[in-house]
């Protein structure tokens, strides 16, 4: 029995001592990924020399679906910077053999053409009973499969989908069917400004929220609309759901919004967060069910109501969704819920329609609209 235990220990030590290249080559489930990475020895060398990392490695089925999609076909163009950006987004800073709570983990994706988040773009990890879900751009959900694999520089988790690099705010709004927000930002000439801010938290009203105050919108001046939209943006703080707590936050508009956490739901003034933690290139978006009014900043939450009353005096519902006439149609399929278990991640029939995890997204969706995010 002693010799058997020693043999098992020796085998375990040998497994841990394997370098990344050897472990990938010896893992049958990752043969598609390994073959493709072999075309880019510099990238493999960079990953192999990294220490204290966690690699989220798409399995053969995930990588095959990806390569057979329009997005995967884009890799045939061999844009090395883009390919490196995609794969470094699959590398977490720190070795995580397991996840015990919801975390927003920084990745090695740090170039400013893909992210304006200090410390690198993140992936959200949500542990479950038998696996961990990893949420990336557009709430794309990849789940771990099997036990983690140890190598000399860290840990590999095999996942069942390719991650999506988060897009900028305006493109995410379009793909998330937050078309009123997208149109309003364009109407106020704020889309580019919001897209290029660093470290933002955006509270984005869903389409139903804009429709509910439709009668008040035609009378707004450009300055009024600008003030309202700026009141939904926090700069300098990326407030993921596990960071939001009771208190106030200064907006770009200059007035504070009040955050209240009630029985796990998050409220911003009187608006409820209905979809939390939509990762974007420069921070995070939380979808809310009411348009905030900087001239009615004292509006408070009423948790007993499913949807808060509009905070624009005398406003009534419109017959169509405002600001959407010139907004492109979303190109991705849609789901309706954010990451399970996240604080304030309640779902609602009036919530935004979020793109589902799919290998059939276009290249712009998968790679986060790199040209749209790029700092000039």
Mean pLDDT: 84
Which oligomerization state do the chains in this entry correspond to? single chain
- H and E order: HHHHEHHHEEEEEEEHHHEHHEEEEEEHH
Largest sheet: 7 strands, mixed
Q: Uncertain runs with pLDDT below 50, 5 residues or more?
A: 1-16, 333-376
**CATH-scheme architecture of the largest domain:** Roll
Helix content: 25-40%
Describe this structure in words.
It is a single chain. This protein is an alpha+beta fold and 376 residues long. It folds into two domains: 2-159, Roll (FAS1 domain); 169-360, FAS1 domain (Roll), CATH 2.30.180.10. 28% of the residues lie in helices and 20% in strands. The protein has 14 helices and 15 strands. The strands form three sheets. The chain has a seven-stranded mixed beta sheet with strand order 10-9-15-14-13-12-11. The protein has a four-stranded mixed beta sheet with strand order 2-1-8-7. A four-stranded antiparallel beta sheet has the order 3-4-5-6, with no helix packed on it. Helix 8 packs antiparallel against helix 9 (179-187). The chain starts with a helix and ends with a helix. The relative contact order is 0.16. Mean pLDDT is 84; it is low at 1-16 and 333-376.
């Amino acid at each position: 029995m002693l010799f058997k235990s020693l043999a098992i220990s020796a085998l375990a030590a040998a497994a841990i001592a394997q370098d990344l290249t050897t472990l990938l080559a010896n893992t049958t489930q990752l043969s598609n990924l390994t073959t493709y990475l072999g075309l880019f020895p510099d990238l493999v060398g960079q990953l192999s020399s990294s220490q204290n990392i966690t690699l989220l490695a798409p399995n053969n089925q995930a990588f095959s679906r990806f390569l057979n999609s329009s997005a995967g076909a884009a890799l045939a163009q061999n844009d090395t910077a883009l390919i490196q950006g995609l794969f470094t987004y699959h590398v977490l800073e720190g070795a995580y053999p397991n996840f015990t709570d919801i975390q927003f983990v920084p990745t090695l994706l740090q170039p400013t053409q893909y992210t304006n988040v200090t410390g690198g773009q993140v992936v959200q990890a949500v542990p479950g009973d038998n696996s961990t879900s990893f949420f990336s751009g557009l709430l794309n959900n990849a789940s771990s499969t099997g036990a983690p694999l140890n190598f000399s520089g860290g840990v590999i988790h095999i996942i069942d989908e390719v991650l999506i690099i988060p897009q900028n705010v305006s493109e995410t709004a379009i793909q998330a069917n937050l078309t009123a927000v997208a149109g309003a930002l364009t109407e106020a000439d704020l889309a580019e400004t919001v897209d290029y801010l660093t470290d933002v938290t955006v509270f984005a009203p869903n389409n139903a929220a804009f429709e509910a105050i439709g009668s008040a919108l035609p009378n707004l001046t450009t300055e009024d609309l600008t003030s309202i939209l700026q009141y939904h943006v926090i700069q300098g703080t990326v407030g993921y759901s596990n960071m939001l707590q009771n208190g106030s936050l200064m907006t770009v508009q200059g007035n504070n919004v009040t955050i209240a956490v009630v029985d796990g739901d998050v409220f911003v003034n009187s608006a409820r967060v209905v979809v939390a933690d939509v990762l974007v290139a420069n921070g995070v978006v939380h979808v809310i069910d009411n348009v905030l009014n900087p001239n009615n900043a004292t509006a408070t939450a009423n948790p007993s109501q499913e949807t808060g009353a509009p905070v624009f005096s005398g406003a009534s519902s419109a017959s169509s969704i405002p600001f959407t006439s010139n907004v492109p149609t979303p190109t991705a399929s849609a789901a309706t819920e954010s990451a399970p278990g996240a604080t304030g991640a309640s779902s609602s029939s009036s919530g935004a329609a979020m793109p589902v995890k799919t290998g059939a997204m276009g290249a712009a969706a998968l790679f986060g609209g790199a040209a749209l995010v790029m700092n000039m």
